[in-house]
Amino acid sequence: MAWRFDGGAARGAQVVAVISSPVNLAVPGGDRRSVVYLDGPVEACGEALSALRGRELLGEVLTVQRGARISLDGDLYEVRAGREVVLSGALLPDRACCSMPSNVWYEPLASEDSGIVGNSLVFNCVVPELDLRFQSVGENDAFVGSFTW
């Protein structure tokens, strides 16, 4: 999951959380473990991390590191965390959100204003702390949008 905070006390913070769980993340209080990557002003990052922990999205946070980068340029998106987490792609050009609803495992975890499905050209994830390693190419596997808590 990735967040770029554009307002409030967390303004300027970028947070990427790699979250692992044996159950679907939509299940409240599921057994979750995460590694969190931050970038931005120190105080803003602290506020963002507190807000996310308060919503119990992250579960047990194993490590917090610097090195988050989130960009959205027109229809192109890119998320980087550390050296080995990369998600980049483009929003679906026809905005055909969820034309295969059986492949949507759960609704986004926050109400969003304009969520669009993204097609990830590259999705590499290597997080040794979570014993996690996978790669995906050319999948409609991202929700991109803005929301307010």
Describe this structure in words.
With 149 residues, the chain is mainly beta. The protein has one domain. The protein contains one helix and ten strands. The chain has one helix at residues 42-54; strands spanning 2-4, 14-20, 33-39, 60-66, 68-73, 76-81, 85-91, 116-127, 132-136, 139-144. The chain is globular and about 35 Å long. 22% of the residues are buried.
User: For the residues shown, what is the average pLDDT?
Assistant: 85
Helix content: under 10%
Would you report the number of β strands? Answer: 10
**Total separate domains:** 1
Strand content: 35-45%
What is the radius of gyration computed over CA atoms, rounded to a whole number of angstroms?
A: 15 Å
Largest sheet: 6 strands, antiparallel
Count helical runs: 1
Distance between the termini: 15 Å
> By helix and strand content, what is the structural category?
mainly beta
**What is the global morphology?**
globular
- The string of secondary-structure elements, in order, is EEEHEEEEEEE
Low-confidence stretches: none
